């Protein structure tokens, strides 16, 4: 009999194509209240278990449901420090930081995320 994972740990299963899939709740849609489900794939169960843990930690850091609390500038700063800077080369991270500070923040950095439209861009 398979082991049961605790609440909040996501689930892991083997797909028909031989790969392993981990699924987790990324948040809840504020309009409908339904869960937003995302997945990670890997060749082995251990690989998926690691990816799943990392993905769930990332989701805890940024709450997409609170988009009315974030401005474009604050969200990009969080994105840069949590995702971009640790995962890209130093020169790329510096390019992103410069772009955010020199181009994005002066123009649209003060706009709330839920008010951002294509027309404003």
Description of the structure:
The chain is an alpha+beta fold and 121 residues long. The protein has two domains: 11-62; 72-115, no CATH class. It has three helices and three strands; from the N terminus they run βββααα. The chain has a three-stranded antiparallel β-sheet with strand order 1-2-3. α2 runs antiparallel to α3 (90-108). The radius of gyration is 18 Å and the shape is globular. The model has no long low-confidence stretch (mean pLDDT 83).
- CA(first)-CA(last) distance: 54 Å
Number of domains: 2
Largest sheet: 3 strands, antiparallel
Order of helices and strands: EEEHHH
SS-based class: alpha+beta
Radius of gyration: 18 Å
Question: What's the overall average pLDDT, rounded?
Answer: 83
Outline type: globular
- Uncertain stretches: none
- Helix content bin: 40-55%
- Counted by DSSP, the helix tally is 3
For the largest sheet, list the strands in their spatial order: 1-2-3
Strand content: 15-25%
